[in-house]
Design a protein that fits this description.
single chain, 217 residues, alpha/beta, Rossmann fold, seven-stranded mixed β-sheet, 6 helices, binds guanosine-5'-triphosphate, binds magnesium ion
Length: 217
């Protein structure tokens, strides 16, 4: 895979995998849902956030990473997670579940409020080490995803694309989507140059993502 722009993240070696496993074996707990910057918990530990359109699988991925069934609420109702939800992982990390975007039925005023909060959050957290932008492996990067990518560029928050729901695509279709994603990421300076393929259903890619997060410390 070397030579390709935005190659797939290599599977972690044993040490890295063990580091990821250990980190995520630590206790994970819901801390709070935040609707304004004034409600943010102290920025006193390493933080990663999960962004992506409604229904892409953010909450499900957090559940898979932490080995919980229902730590982050996951549902079939798009737009369910409307607050910035903070989870603690051990006493060293925050995992942050961002509100999903691109939910057509959300009223304009609600969307604007989310965007304002999101902008403030992305540029106001010095401990935010990386944003994971989740993209449905069946669909690739769509117009609705562009706003967050631009926001991350502007806030200079390094972001890494995580393809979700890979259990729902065949290999050939996945290759086409990967090519589309690679092209769409080219203009984004904040894009981390490796992609991660995941399925919360089968567990594929979960150890890799765990070790990537553990490696940020
Ligand atoms: P919002 O909170 O609305 O922004 O959505 P979300 O991004 O948190 O999505 P959520 O985790 O609630 O998942 C949406 C739906 O996709 C649920 O029905 C999940 O079970 C399903 N889902 C999530 N990840 C996967 C996956 O890897 N494979 C499959 N097959 N389904 C998945
Ligand atoms: Mg959610």
């Amino acid at each position: 895979m070397t030579g390709l722009p935005f190659p797939l993240a290599a599977a972690p070696d044993e040490t890295a995998q063990e580091r990821g496993r250990k980190l995520f074996a630590g206790q994970a707990a819901f801390l709070k849902g935040v609707v304004a910057m004034s409600g943010m918990p102290p920025a006193n530990r390493l933080e990663v956030c999960f962004a992506g359109r409604s229904n892409v699988g953010k909450s499900t991925l957090i559940n898979a990473l932490t080995g919980h069934k229902a730590l982050a609420r996951a549902s079939n109702t798009p737009g369910r997670t409307q607050e910035i939800n903070f989870f603690t992982l051990g006493n060293t990390h925050y995992l942050v579940d961002l509100p999903g975007y691109g939910f057509a039925k959300a009223p304009v005023a609600v969307v604007e409020k989310w965007q304002k909060l999101l902008r403030a959050y992305l540029s106001g957290r010095p401990t935010l080490r990386r944003a994971f932008v989740l993209i449905d492996a069946r669909h690739g990067i769509k117009t609705v995803d562009q706003d967050i990518l631009t926001l991350l560029d502007k806030a200079a928050v390094p972001f890494q694309v995580v393809l979700t729901k890979t259990d729902k695509v065949k290999a050939a279709a996945q290759d086409a989507v990967l090519e589309q994603v690679r092209g769409a990421l080219q203009p984004h300076p904040a894009a981390y140059p490796e992609l991660v393929l995941t399925s919360s259903e089968t567990g594929d890619g979960i150890p890799t993502l765990r070790s990537i997060i553990a490696g940020l410390a």
